[in-house]
Amino acid sequence: MCCTGYPLLILRLLLLLLPILLLAVWAETRDYYDLLGVSREATTREIRRAFKQLALTMHPDKNPGDPSAHEKFLQVNRAYEVLKDEDLRKKYDKYGEKGLDEQQGGRYESWNYYRYDFGIYDDDLEIITLDSGDFEAAVDSGEIWFINFYFPRCSHCHQLAPTWRRMARVQCTV
Q: Signal sequence span per UniProt (predicted)?
C-alpha cells in the first residue's frame, strides 16, 4: 500500500529535474555565434569587433568579484578563436563543437592585451584590415590596393595612421 505512490513520486522528480538537466546541457553547448552576439553570416571583421567589445568588459581582471568570470571569458575566447579562423569556422559550422580539436584555445591574456592588440584601423569603415586569406584574394583580384603593414602595439604606427588614412582617401579619388 505504501509503494503505490512511489512510481508517481519518481515521475514527479523526473519531471522536476528534466528542465534543469536540459538547461545545463544548453548552457554547455551554447552556440559560438550567440556567445559573441553575431550572426552566422558575420564577417571576420564583425566577429573581431564583437569579441573586442566583450573582452574589454568580460575579462576576469575587470570582474574580480564574479567567480564565474573566468569560465565565461574562456567560453567567449574559445568562440572567438574558432570563428576568426576560416578552417575552424567551417568545421564548427559543419560539425559543431564536437568537430573541433579539443586542444585548441582555452588560454587568454591580461585585460590590457585585448585593449591594445587590435588593428589601428578596425573601426574605420573605409579601410579594410586583411588577414592572410583576404590578402591573397586582394592580390589575385586585379584591383589596385594601397597596403600598409603595421604592428598594433607600435606607437609610431599609431602616429602615422591619420597620414595613411588621408593618403588612401586621395588614392581613391584619383
A: 1-27
The pLDDT tens digits of the residues spanning 81-138 come to: 899 988 888 888 887 887 776 545 545 555 454 544 555 566 555 566 666 677 777 7
For the chain, which domains are there? 1-30 (no CATH), 31-118 (1.10.287.110), 121-174 (no CATH)
The CA distance from 122 to 130, in Å, is 10
Q: What whole-number distance in Å separates Cα of residue 43 and Cα of residue 55?
A: 18
Q: Catalogue the long-range contacts made by 158-162 (C-beta closer than 8 Å, 24 or more residues apart).
A: 158/120, 161/120, 161/121
Q: What number of H helices and E strands is found in the chain?
A: 8, 0
> CA-to-CA distance for 28 and 69, rounded, in angstroms?
15
pTM: 0.47
